[in-house]
Design goal:
Layout (H helix, E strand, L loop, with lengths): L1 H6 L3 H13 L5 H12 L1 H14 L1 H4 L1
Length: 61
Amino acid sequence: MVAEAERSGRWLRFLQTSIDLLRGGDADPLALSARVDFASRPDAYQERLWHIVRTSPALTG
């Protein structure tokens, strides 16, 4: 699996997954759910963050 991850350029994701598995369970199920959702849809989160930053009066000057 490691060799395949290295060949496909996904070794960082493999490494992070390994670390997450070793860390153990999260006491807060909502935090785990949010992390899984972010990991599966990072573009949607980035787009939403960009929208918030672009339209926030406090952040636009």
